[in-house]
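FAQ: What does a ligand-bound record look like?

Like this one, built around zinc ion:
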Amino acid sequence: MKTWFKELSFSTSKAREVIDLTSKVTSAVRESGIKNGLLIVQLPHATASLVLNENESGLKQDLLNKLDDFAPVRGGYQHDRIDDNAHAHLKSAFIGSSRVLPIADGRVVRGTWQSFLVIEQDGPRTRRLAIFVMGE
Ligand code: ZN
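The answer part, i.e. the structure of the complex:
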């Protein structure tokens, strides 16, 4: 069994936005040379999250709006006493920052409408995405 690791760097340009990293992730998997195995993608941050969903402008705005309903900015949180981003931590904690997907016959197994979307909640900033592939 082979293992392969890469860390990508990317920038976000707004305080809250959804970024599509699908082409970067799938080209990294191709670069790994692994045809059958597992892909682990991990966003090493506490104020952003990673989901698999449709890259459609209306839905991306719906996601941001719904998350603001769940955890509004400056919603009277304890953490805001030392920082101003409790809402971003809460959203990240509940959604999660990593995903595991199968790789079969050289393709990441995912649905047609499942893009790798990063939900930024504390931008703009430089972020990283860790990509680990194992298999043969
Ligand atoms: Zn914080």
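Follow-up question: can I read anything off the structure? Yes, for example: The mean pLDDT is 98.
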